[in-house]
Design a protein that fits this description.
By secondary structure, this protein is of the alpha/beta class. It has 19 helices and 12 strands. α1 packs across α19 and α12 packs across α17. It is globular.
């Protein structure tokens, strides 16, 4: 298993590793760097003989000022520094090649990033599968975009002709330029994200996707037509509910507060670890939540702009006092999946990362999407297309939003008569997203493919 060093990739690869061991008794070597592996969940004791977490120290760059010493994942860096993390990770090519030569695995399951794995796999005659952590919908859009020779403006139009069915997926104009720059232009490594992805897919025998036919069968068919290789849905890799809640005092207070709330009455607000909203955006979100008057629990990653010597408050002045009877703000890490599983949570304001979408719909919560980076905009449009969420209205040119936009979306989704059907569909979705037996059946099919060597 070779995931890219971002937790939106590490966690799905880890969950797939556990599922393959649990369902198929497959031996897995999960490769990453020491700090990343330390931050992963623990391998269940019953599976430690099957799942091995293999640490390779992240090599240093010649210019040691480019990458902080303790930065091993994208969450540790501002967006403009991630290119140097990519450069350091590429230096793992030779150690990984030696590991492959020594271990002689039956398969290599690789992310979109390690474009050099194709040559290694070919040298040792080992078949390779690309595991896409993205939704089949966004993956099909991006493959279609790449094969069309994209420009920023082309990313704002649905690729319905190439996908062969009506599709609303497209980037907003304010998203397209940033995404194009990030994915299609070469950076410090001399290789763009799109070039990496194309080389990986070209070298792989098949693509495994974090999808299921019950949710996005139409887009799975689109992927199949676009790549002309087997595509294998492995289910949604839904994380188990519950877990160890013996956290520090601040988290214990958080769950104590949740225990005191009415069932399905609280809004969960979480923008993930990769989103880094600026102060104006955080303030407008805060004012919007306050304006809605809804009970809320907000997990706020401490913004870099508040990490100054005078410790700037990441929230508007007086926000905590004015909302003390309505909600709780927790600054820092918190166990999102355990919070979403709590019976008092009923709705979510999210960044539309596919992992958070899955965790939310697992429990039938309505989603209000506020996308920021990567594929989140496409995921937000998919939610709207499927009738499982709504998106906060934003300025089409610059992506700005106001407190009124936030409050309007929240009240529509949570308390309005017009949002009644939306809430019903979200509750119904839990029967698919939370069906462990269903998703294990996809893993079983994948196991059969692996054991047959894909022949």
């Amino acid at each position: 298993m070779l995931p890219w060093s971002a937790f939106g990739h590490l966690i799905p690869f880890f969950n797939l590793s556990i599922a393959l061991a649990q369902v198929g008794e497959i031996h897995v070597s999960f490769i990453s760097t020491p700090k990343n592996i330390q931050r992963l969940p623990k391998v269940p004791p019953s599976l430690t003989h099957l799942v091995k977490l293999v640490e390779f120290p992240l090599p240093s760059l010649d210019d040691k000022t480019l990458l902080p010493e303790d930065a091993e994942a994208s969450v540790d860096l501002p967006l403009e520094k991630i290119q140097y993390l990519k450069a350091a990770y590429d230096l793992l090519r030779e150690p990984i090649k030696q590991f492959i030569a020594d271990q002689k695995p039956d398969w290599i399951i690789v992310d979109f990033f390690q474009y050099w794995m194709g040559e290694i796999a070919e040298a040792y005659d080992i078949p390779m599968i690309h595991f896409s952590v993205f939704a089949a919908a966004s993956r099909s859009f991006l493959i279609a975009a790449r094969t069309s020779g994209p420009m920023p403006e082309s990313l704002t139009s649905p690729f319905s002709e190439k996908l062969h069915f009506p599709s609303t997926l497209a980037y907003r104009s304010y998203e397209a330029a940033e995404f194009y720059s990030m994915c299609y232009q070469e950076d410090a490594t001399g290789v763009s994200y799109a070039q990496r992805s194309a080389k990986v897919l070209g070298a792989c025998r098949a693509m495994a996707t974090r999808s299921c036919k019950e949710f996005d069968s139409d887009y799975l068919e689109a992927v199949q037509k676009l790549i002309c290789k087997p595509k294998i849905p492995v289910g949604l890799l839904t994380p188990p509910s519950g877990g160890d809640l013996n956290h520090d005092q601040s988290l214990q207070r958080l769950f104590k507060w949740l225990n005191q709330q009415n069932p399905r009455s609280v809004l969960f607000v979480g923008l993930g670890s990769e989103c880094k909203p600026n102060r104006d955006q955080v303030y407008e979100i805060a004012h919007g939540i306050e304006l809605s008057g809804l009970p809320f629990l907000w997990i706020l990653q401490k913004p870099s702009w508040s990490n100054t010597s005078d410790d700037v408050d990441p929230l508007p002045t007086g926000f905590d006092t004015r909302t003390a009877e309505k909600g709780v703000v927790h600054v820092g890490w918190a166990p999102q999946k355990e919070i979403l599983a709590h019976p008092s949570i009923g709705w979510s304001l999210l960044h539309a990362g596919i992992g958070s979408i899955i965790e939310t719909l697992q429990h039938g919560h309505v989603l209000v999407a506020l996308p920021f980076v990567y594929d989140q905009g496409l995921n937000a449009r998919l939610l709207v297309e499927k009738g499982l969420g709504i998106e906060v209205e934003r300025n089409e040119e610059n992506g700005s939003f106001t407190r009124k936009d936030i409050a309007k979306a929240l009240t529509y989704a949570m308390v309005s008569k017009e949002g009644k059907e939306l809430r019903a569909r979200a509750r119904e979705a839990a029967s698919v997203f939370g069906d462990t037996q269903l998703h294990n059946s996809y893993i079983s099919t994948f196991v059969e493919y692996l054991k047959a060597k894909g022949e």
